[in-house]
Amino acid sequence: MDQAENCSSDTLNSDYQTDFELDTRSGNLLKIHNEKEVNREIITARRINNTLFHCLLKTVQYGTWDHLPAALLVFDFHFGYRDACRDRFTEAVIEIEFEETINSQFEVPDPRNKNNDPEVKLLAPVRVLGNPSKEKVSSKWFLEGNLTYPIPLGPQAGVTPHKEKEVSSERQRRMWLNGDRDSDDYHRHHNRIVWRTGENKVEETGILHNFPAATVIVLPRDPKHCVKAKVVVTPHVAFSANPVRLFSKRDDPIFLDRTSSKGPQYEAGRDFSDSDYPWETIVKIPTEYEDSLYT
Question: Rounded to two decimals, what is the model's pTM?
Answer without folding.
Answer: 0.76
